[in-house]
Amino acid sequence: MARKYSKGAAKKVKRALHKKKRGTLKSGRSGRTVTSRKQAIAIALSEGRKEGTKVPKKKTGRKKQKS
To answer: Which of 19, 30, 44, 45 is a Cys-bridge partner for 13, taking CB atoms 3.0 to 4.6 Å apart?
Structure first.
């Protein structure tokens, strides 16, 4: 089975989690400190996508089907 995420993306996530732990990871325009582990991972994967590493597309909200 192929890797879902590339090694480059894994490095990004590792770096982001270290930064979060030290309290130096900032988010978006507001520049607020990230406290959520999930948010740190999301930021890292987003950066990976911009760089062109192998990262799956974001999942979008799906509408429920009427039955």
So the answer is: 44
The pLDDT of residue 14: 95
Q: Name the pLDDT band for 44 (thresholds 50, 70, 90).
A: very high
**Which residues are CB-contacts of 27 (< 8 A; sequence separation ≥ 6)?**
33, 34, 39, 43
CA distances from 28 to 3, 31, 38, 67 (A): 28, 6, 15, 40
Helix ranges (DSSP H) in the chain: 7-22, 37-51
Region at 56 (left for phi over 0; alpha for psi -120 to 50; beta for the rest)? beta
**Structure-block tokens of residue 46:** 């987003």
Q: Is the overall model pTM greater than 0.85, yes or no?
A: no
